[in-house]
Amino acid sequence: MHKVRLNPALGVRMALERKLAAWREAGIVDAATVEKIRAFEARHNRPYALYVVGGLGGLAVVLGIISIIASNWADIPRGVKLVVDLAMVGGLAWGVWKQDGQGHAWQREMLLILMWGMVLASVALIGQVYHLGGKPWQALLAWSLMTLPAMLLFGHSAFVALCTLLAVNGSIGSSLVEWVDHVHRSDQYVALSVLLTVGGVVPLLHLRLGHSPSWMAWRPHWASVARGLGWAAVLGISGAAQQAWYGSVHLDGEEAQAFFTALVPVTGLVAWLCVVAPRLLGNPTPAQLLSWRVLLTFSVVAGVAPVLLDHSRAGPVAALSFIVFLLLVAWYAYQHANVWLFNVATALLAIRLLIVFGEMFGSLLTTGIGLIFGGLVVLGMAWLWLRQTRTLRAEIRQREDA
Amino acid sequence: MNTSQRKAAALALPLVVLLAMVVRAEAIVAMGRSYILPIAGYDPRDLLRGQYLRFRVEWNTYGNRWPEPGEGVCMRLDAQRENPVVRFAPQGSDENCQAFINPDALQNLNQYFIPEGTGLPLEQAIRQRRAEIKVKVGRGGDVIIEDLLLDGEPWQDVVNRAPQ
Questions:
Q1: How far is A189 from chain B (nearest CA, A)?
Q2: Euclidean distance between CA atoms B71 and B104, whole angstroms
Q3: pLDDT (tens digit per residue) in B130-149
């Protein structure tokens, strides 16, 4: 039997080392292959936990500094507060520049996040020093826009991408809500149309950005995060909209006009995305292309129908619509080899089927029979899922080898 | 612009914007017209952002009305520094103003940051005294609150003198 000496000094995860030891014991890989795998993993290892822990530590430092300043507020002269604050922002910016020049990725990303947070704290500090007042959305919007170029040019990691995109979306969203609230009093149609249009178009634009070949080449993690956020928003809004089937809906007047107005740009963008999908997805198979187009189109239709169509309580429609929706998500995930999404979709499908049986039956006896039947269906699905994930993983390996 | 220059500009941008905010505020403090305005309606809040004293200005105007949305405050040409006589008017509609507070600045003229631990003594002091804010109004219609006054004195002097 071959013994493999564990070598944590290379920074390879212990789980991987255990796997390598097991494969070596079984004679599946030789010593040279083990070393090649170790070297590859060390080069491509993404220290997500390190980023999160580092980010939390940095945030704690910034909050601690702010708290100290706040606790001695009255005793510190205005000029000192501002000079120290601007010096800290400048120092962090210099640190980012230095680390970027030396190719220290983790240090650069952490200093960038610290600088990003410190700029927001500085905006708040200046507002407090001069008692400027102002609304939170103004500070958020100014902050996210003034830091966006630095985050784009220096931030390579998915963590930085996620923080930035969430902040930009959040600040634009809060500005929009403020504007809508202001306009709503005088013109409900305009306010609602803008809100619905932006709410429908922004997730689709994230999808477009996330599939942009130039973005995927320049900032692959940003593209991946944009795709994830886009799909999360599209699927989340569509899934949540199904709840509207459980109520009574009757839109008229300005509300209905606003929905139809918003529908025009949204359907236009969906149609355009479907047309350019072959280029966006980079030589997809026919099944991949079809699943992408069908899921995107159905998500929008399923998200809009419960709100635009007049109906009273339509529970069976909600159940059926949600089940079809989840089936399409699972199909899309299968075609695009997204094992995580496939697992989530099938799990949610199983839960939803159980809920259906609870919804459809009334008395204890019929509910019990329904649950037994539903449970057997779910067990059958679990068996099929187990078989399909094995097949999916094998197919992924074959595609990668090819 | 090459990559290095773009990167340097991106890092400098937040600093430049922050500096510009400070310079703009300091310009109002240095060159703005000073006024003392009576205030009322106190509601100290104490949460994550620190404490703010929320107030409303008791404008010295003819007729009992509030500014409409879109209206600013025009300090009349003969306005005195303390409790000046004002009228409400849309921005740019009336040039016979000693100073003009624009509608956006007016909307934000409702809170004053107070340090941790001073909320209760300040609230007690305000209930017994006349409260005013000392402001500087810039040429662009922006306002900076310089100080909170109680019976004409800076609030910190009054609170520090008060029995504990």
A1: 21
A2: 9
A3: 989 999 999 888 999 999 99
What tens digit of pLDDT does each residue of A37-81 get? 888 777 666 566 666 677 677 777 777 776 776 666 667 788 988
| Sign of the dihedral defined by the CA atoms of residues A342, A347, A348, A353, in that order | positive
Are A312 and A327 in contact by the 8 Å Cβ rule? The answer is no
CB A82 within 8 A of CB A129: yes
Q: What is the ipTM of this complex?
A: 0.85
The verdict on a CB contact (< 8 Å) between B15 and A89 is: yes
Chain A residue with CA closest to B11: the answer is A150
Provide the β-strand partners of residue B137: B33, B143
Does the pTM of the predicted model rise above 0.80?
no
Q: Which of A30-34, A86-90, A172-176 has the highest mean pLDDT?
A: A86-90
Among A86, A115, A131, select the one facing B112 at the smallest CB separation. Answer: A131
Q: Which of B15, B18, B157 to mutate to test the interface with A (most CBs of A within 10 A)?
A: B18
Which among B112, B113, B116 is the nearest to A71, CB-wise?
Answer: B116
- Three-state secondary structure string covering chain A: CCCCCCCHHHCCCHHHHHHHHHHHHCCCCCHHHHHHHHHHHHHHCCCHHHHHHHHHHHHHHHHHHHHHHHHCHHHCCHHHHHHHHHHHHHHHHHHHHHHHHHCCHHHHHHHHHHHHHHHHHHHHHHHHHCCCCCCHHHHHHHHHHHHHHHHHHHCCCHHHHHHHHHHHHHHHHHHHHHHHHHHHCCCHHHHHHHHHHHHHHHHHHHHHHHCCHHHHHHCHHHHHHHHHHHHHHHHHHHHHHHHHHHCCECCCHHHHHHHHHHHHHHHHHHHHHHHHHHHHHCCCCHHHHHHHHHHHHHHHHHHHHHHHCCECCCHHHHHHHHHHHHHHHHHHHHHCCCHHHHHHHHHHHHHHHHHHHHHHCCCHHHHHHHHHHHHHHHHHHHHHHHHHHHHHHHHHHHHHHC
